[in-house]
Amino acid sequence: MRILLMPIAALSLAGLLSAGAVAHADDDGHDTDGRTLDAIQEAVEKGAIKPFSELREIASRRVKGDIVRVEPRRKHGRFLYKFKVLSPEGQLVEIEMDAASGTILEIENE
Predict the structure, then answer these.
(1) Could you tell me if 49 and 97 are in contact, meaning their C-beta atoms sit under 8 angstroms apart?
(2) Reduced DSSP (H G I as helix, E B as strand, rest coil) percent helix, strand, coil of the chain, to 5
(3) DSSP 8-state assignment for residue 48
(4) pLDDT digit string (tens) for the chain, length 110 residues
(5) In order of start, what are the domains of the chain with their CATH numbers?
(6) What is the per-residue pLDDT for 59?
(7) What is the pLDDT of residue 77?
(8) How many C-beta atoms surround the C-beta of residue 36 within 10 A?
(9) Residues 6+ away with beta carbon under 8 Å from 36
(10) Which pLDDT value is given to residue 84?
(11) What angle do CA 37, 49, 78 make, to 5 degrees?
């Protein structure tokens, strides 16, 4: 199962990075529009943030399970990734990570 979900997560992120979206910012300051996704791709190319593969590896080492969703976003000028991981026990765990440093900012059990 893990082998199947990793390519799906990677393809989902690739789709997010290539898709244009209507610009919006929700009320907690999270900006998840198409321009943010373009900016993430540009920041990776410039070396300002870590590639998704490195961030995914950090998340996988910290919380065991299958990554079932990834939400790239920009919050207050910082690039962040939120990984949703399904643990072997069936619990959904959210990991919020700084994309520049790979620092885990928060781990939350849902």
Answers:
(1) no
(2) 35, 30, 30
(3) S
(4) 555 555 555 545 554 444 333 333 443 445 556 777 788 899 999 999 999 999 999 999 999 999 999 999 988 989 999 999 999 999 999 999 999 999 999 999 97
(5) 2-109 (3.10.450.40)
(6) 98
(7) 86
(8) 20
(9) 72, 73, 74
(10) 98
(11) 65
Q: Residue 35: its pLDDT value, please?
A: 77
Terminal alpha carbon distance of the chain: 21
Residue whose pair of structure tokens reads 């520049």 in the numeric block: 100
**Cβ contact 104:97 at 8 Å:** yes
CB atoms < 10 A from the CB of 43, how many?
16
The answer to whether the beta carbons of residues 37 and 21 sit under 8 Å apart is: yes
Q: Which two tokens stand for residue 1?
A: 């199962």
- The tokens of 4 are what? 């199947």
User: 40: closest CA among 93, 98, 95?
Assistant: 98
